[in-house]
Amino acid sequence: MTATTRKGTGIMLRLKSLEITNIRSVEHVTLKVDPDGTTALYGPSGVGKSGILDALPWCLWGDTGSAGSAAALRREGSTEPAQATATVLIGSDEIVALRRITRSDSGVESASAKLWINGVKQSNVTPASLTRIITDLTGLTAKTFRGAFYMAQGQLTDLMTGTPAKVQETFEELTGLDDLTKRIQVLREQCKEAAVRAEALPGDPAEVTRTADDAKEAGRESDRLQQESNSAAAAAASARTIWDTANQRAKELQSAERAARDSREAVVGAEALAADAAQAVNAARLRLHDLGEASEGDPEVQGAATRTACAALEQALGELTRRGTELKAAAGQEGSARTAAEQARAAHDSVDPDALATAVTDGQAEVDAGRAAHQEAMRAAHVADAAVAQRDEAIATLSRAMDAAACPTCRQDVGDVAALVDEQNAILDQARKDAAAAHQKATTLDRALLDAETRLRKAHDALANVTSLARVAEHAEEAASAATRHADQAAATLAELVAAHQNAPAPTGREQIHSAALAVHEQLTEQLSTARGVTAAWITLTDTIARAAAASGRVEQARAAVVDAPSPTDVAAAESCEATTRVDLDTAQTGAADAAAQAQAARATAMQLDGIADDAATRWNLKREAAEQAEVTRIARDIGIALRRDLLAEYCATISAAATDILTRLGGEHVGFMIDETFVPQVVLPDGTTRATRQLSGGEKARAAVCAFIGFSRQLAGGGKPGMLFADEITASQDEAFRRDMLTMLRALEMPMIVVSHTADVLDIASRVIRLQRPPLGSTQLAA
Ligand SMILES: Nc1ncnc2c1ncn2[C@@H]1O[C@H](COP(=O)(O)OP(=O)(O)OP(=O)(O)O)[C@@H](O)[C@H]1O
Ligand SMILES: [Mg+2]
Predict the structure, then answer these.
(1) 45 CA → ligand 2 middle, Å
(2) What pTM, to 2 d.p., does this model score?
(3) Which domains does the chain have, with CATH numbers?
(4) Residue bearing the CA closest to ligand 1, atom 2
């Protein structure tokens, strides 16, 4: 509804300059426009004039017009950024808007925008925000701008000759009324749908009342039964209290009766235990008697004395055992020492020192003889080696003189050297054999010498060992004597111990001592066994006496705890009372349970009826709300219709008045222009009659159309000056007289405008002329 909100403000959008790069047929062009006068955009058909004009709404609003998309606006064949920069005056503000599309390597176009207002660059401007700002500043959308300020090629006569439906469509588009009309259409449909929906919904106020009454009645019945249930519950609670009391009383009496019986039984039990304990004391005394003990006296003292006697016997037995063991060990050691001494003495006696001395002397002589023989053999071997060396030398010398006539040594003539060499070789062989034999002999003698030396060493060792064997035998004999002394000592000690126990003179001789010790051991062991039996009997007697005393104590306690039993009559009366009140309680509880069940059932019924009533109310509410909604939609529709009627009347009046004003100023037969809700544009003749514009001549239609167009512009400008007009070839296909007539009319409008034309007539009314040219298949350029 921009047309209404803008009312009375005035627009005054005027172009100052437009720089275009890579749009339609333009590679790069900058147009300087006269913002206050008439700028002619002049050039032959196809030079690029309409393309230049199309760049302006794209730059300001992003509107791509008939191209359909920004990518289609891009100059064919170019991949560089395509952009337009428009400098416009809106009121007194100077706005510079730039819009650009950039193509990526993958062919995707991305848009960007910039904006300056009175020289100040605005931050964060996007293509969408630029469109929004321009719309806010001008109060125009791209559509209304194109409709009311762009007199496009061929559009004017359409308005004058179209069917009412077509004229209405154009009218509403130019005035912006189409939005409201569409909204009303939508509201009409919504209205119908809402009414149908409300009618179709279930819901009935009578049902609401009926179900609510039913629910209330059920609620009352439920309350009544609940009260009855409460009374029954109270009666049951009271019966419970009475029964509790009777039950308590009966239980107390039963418990007293049980306690009396238990206390009597406890006395009997304690007495039985005491009798058992007394019997056990007698048995313990009999046992002591059987053991030959007088059972009188303090058992604890007696027990302690017998325990001491046991300990003394155990100690004596231990001592005897220890001494006996000692004697046994000493006798064993004595035997071993004596055997070792005998063995050492036998080893010493088995060697003859004189024979060993002779062996040493003989061995020494043998070694000396062997050593001399070996030295002699070594010497013979050396002599043989020297003889071999000598023969070797002689043969070498003779070999060197093989060819000479004289012997190299004696310088005498030698008749047959070879024979001489052979002779020397024979000697050499013999010398070698002699040397080998000499070496063999020396080696044999060396081995014999070594054997003799070994034997001599052994003989020396054996002789030296004789002394040591004598010392060992002496030591072993001393140790054997010491062991014998020790064994005798142990036997004497054991004998004294035996004598002490037997109260007799000590036995002599190890055998006697040993058998006497065994007899004492047996005797002591028997005494210990008896003493232990007595000790156990005294302990048993002590324990049974203590148990008998405790049992007597418990008998006393039980007797003291005996309680009196209640009267059997009282007990029977209390039990009878409990049974009677129990029957009353059961009856009351059954009644209460029945009443509670009835109350619950009634409550369930009441809740069910509540639910039914709620459902009925909900259904009715939904139907009522739907009906209200339908009513609201209907009111909105009616308001819209009324508003549209008022606006339409106002717009028709404004447009008719403005167009009439222009027509009158132009003069001629047509003194007025009229358009109303029938959408049949008409001109008024001087006699007051009207004529539909479709009946006019071509030229008259064009005149009327320009006037109507100005009317639309004025209406959009709120009645004020609409700013700059853009007229694209509005005189095309017309004869010269008509064209001149139109140009005269445009001049008479006294509005800034850009007039596009490929005929030169336009130059007459232009305050500035922009000439365009385009070489074949080239881009649009400014002509000089
Ligand atoms: N995206 C484009 N890239 C290159 N050339 C284009 C593009 N779109 C249109 N054209 C060509 O640009 C030329 C100029 O077209 P335009 O409609 O601007 O001419 P004009 O000057 O208005 O002509 P007329 O006086 O006949 O109306 C035409 O030849 C058209 O085919
Ligand atoms: Mg054109």
Answers:
(1) 7
(2) 0.49
(3) 1-153+726-741+752-784 (3.40.50.300), 327-502 (1.10.287.510)
(4) 24
